């Protein structure tokens, strides 16, 4: 109680509600007014005197210190501007064009970018972690910025077998999610003003990282074969980097053709440019085995392969990785250390056990089957309830699918209306670099299915139809 009183008087002094020199009530009087013991008031006054807010004189009373600066300087600012402006670099980290989406509350139809948390074997994870804690890991000190070596070995083996990635464990750098990897890439490889291709429509997170690095973000269109390399070369011939999602383009879901992959690699070789391959959810392909990576075709060390475990395990793990050309490893490891030293070590150790003991492979197999069923349910629901309004795009991979409107409509307004009805989805136009709703851009809805139970998909589809009807 004395701390509550102490805090109340302190804030009143700082806000100027009690001015310098003002006399406070005697301790007995204030105790009687507040219905507390005198000792409570004495303790509060003593703390405030010790910290310089009050001054007491025996026989005269207790006063607000006269030597405090003008109280108004402490008052709460009525505006949102800092006392001093952000640096020009700092200003590039704020604003709607660099804002990233977050999720709140449990998943509901049709949340995108999420795995099915109801399918993750948390009991297995808890058992593996408890086993490690029974014998405290010696690695609990500061760890190597590059990442836990057994985990890097496990990831290198997995990527080689499943994605055809050519790498040594020493080329694998563990990051706190793929977003950190993209930030490091933009910061280390691009100077202010350097041009970088991004898919349009595409992942907004890369645009945020590029803008923060003061690079020139260059939108390049995407067609049914992936990024249109010829358009990029024509419009931004001197680009230093290209960001692509070749296995499963976000958000259109297309796969980059072999011809387009070879064309992109040839451009990078000729222009000494970097290619960032974001392989964010390639494990989930429903019409055949996962496709080989773009990195597996690279002969000149142009491709930086970026992966995440958020889409396979759970986003809260915050674990991703980069496979770097050997010449870049030392620089990125040092930058990784400056940024936050290293990723949390205990999750790395547990994840290593999860992979090496076979749980990872079994989890992917189980979730691929479950997501496949949820995907079919969503396609059937679109056909049954939404076919009058939308048509489904490529749906053979990933955790969500994109629909386009049969007749052009304001997809952002529809997404807002759906949210008011408890339906969570994303407008396709929001994936364009400038949130464009011009005639050149597609409009539609991006619908997630991976985290949504089948019964919820079936229930939400008619409700979405009602929104579209309205």
CATH superfamily of the largest domain: Type I PLP-dependent aspartate aminotransferase-like (Major domain)
Order of helices and strands: HEHHEEHHHEHEHEEHEHEEEHHHEEHEEH
Characterize the main sheet.
Answer: 8 strands, mixed
* CATH topology call of the largest domain: Aspartate Aminotransferase, domain 2
Low-confidence stretches: 71-76
Strand content: 5-15%
Q: In DSSP terms, counting alpha (H) and pi (I) runs of 4 or more, how many helices?
A: 15
Could you give a quick summary of the protein structure above?
With 470 residues, the protein is of the alpha/beta class. The protein contains 15 helices and 15 strands.
Question: Can you tell me about this structure?
Answer:
The chain has about 475 residues and is α/β, with parallel strands linked by helices. The protein has three domains: about 70 residues, Orthogonal Bundle (Arc Repressor Mutant, subunit A); about 220 residues, Aspartate Aminotransferase, domain 2 (3-Layer(aba) Sandwich); about 110 residues, Aspartate Aminotransferase, domain 1 (Alpha-Beta Complex). The chain is globular.
């Amino acid at each position: 109680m004395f701390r509550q009183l102490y805090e109340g008087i302190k804030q009143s002094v700082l806000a100027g509600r009690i001015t310098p020199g003002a006399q406070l009530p005697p301790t007995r009087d204030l105790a009687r007014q507040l219905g507390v013991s005198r000792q409570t008031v004495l303790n509060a006054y003593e703390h405030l005197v010790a910290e310089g807010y009050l001054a007491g004189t025996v026989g005269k009373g207790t006063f607000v210190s006269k030597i405090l600066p003008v109280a108004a300087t402490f008052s709460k600012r009525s505006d949102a501007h800092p006392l001093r402006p952000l640096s020009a670099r700092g200003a590039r980290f704020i604003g709607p064009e660099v804002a990233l989406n977050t999720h709140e509350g449990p998943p509901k139809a049709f949340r995108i970018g999420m795995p099915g948390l109801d399918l993750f074997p948390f009991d297995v994870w808890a058992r593996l972690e408890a086993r490690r804690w029974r014998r405290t890991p010696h690695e609990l000190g500061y760890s190597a910025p590059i990442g836990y070596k057994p985990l890097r070995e496990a990831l290198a083996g997995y990527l080689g077998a499943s994605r055809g990635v050519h790498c040594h464990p020493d080329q694998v750098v563990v990051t706190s999610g793929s977003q950190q990897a993209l930030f490091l890439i933009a910061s280390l490889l691009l100077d202010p003003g350097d041009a970088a291709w991004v898919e349009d429509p595409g992942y907004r997170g890369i645009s945020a990282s590029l803008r923060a690095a003061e690079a020139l973000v260059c939108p390049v269109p995407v067609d049914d074969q992936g990024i249109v390399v010829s358009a990029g070369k024509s419009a931004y011939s001197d680009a230093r980097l290209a960001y692509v999602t070749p296995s499963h383009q976000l958000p259109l879901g297309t796969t980059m053709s072999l011809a387009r992959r070879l064309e992109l690699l040839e451009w990078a070789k000729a222009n000494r440019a970097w290619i960032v391959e974001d392989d964010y959810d390639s494990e989930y392909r429903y019409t055949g085995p996962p496709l080989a990576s773009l990195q597996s075709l690279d002969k000149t060390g142009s491709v930086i392969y970026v992966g995440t475990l958020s889409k396979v395990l759970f986003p809260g793990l915050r674990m991703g990785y980069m496979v770097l050309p050997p010449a870049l490893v030392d620089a990125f490891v040092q930058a990784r250390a400056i940024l936050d030293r290293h990723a949390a070590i205990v999750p790395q150790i547990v994840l290593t056990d999860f992979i090496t003991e076979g749980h990872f492979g079994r989890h992917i197999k189980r979730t691929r089957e479950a997501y496949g069923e949820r995907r079919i349910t969503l396609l059937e629901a679109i056909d049954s309830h939404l076919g009058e309004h939308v048509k489904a795009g490529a749906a053979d991979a990933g955790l969500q699918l994109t629909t386009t409107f049969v007749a052009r409509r304001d997809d952002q307004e529809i997404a807002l209306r759906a949210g008011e009805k408890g339906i969570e989805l994303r407008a396709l136009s929001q994936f364009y670099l400038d949130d464009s709703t011009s005639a050149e851009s597609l409009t539609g809805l991006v619908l997630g299915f991976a985290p949504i139970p089948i019964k919820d998909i079936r229930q939400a589809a008619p409700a979405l139809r009602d929104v579209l009807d309205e």
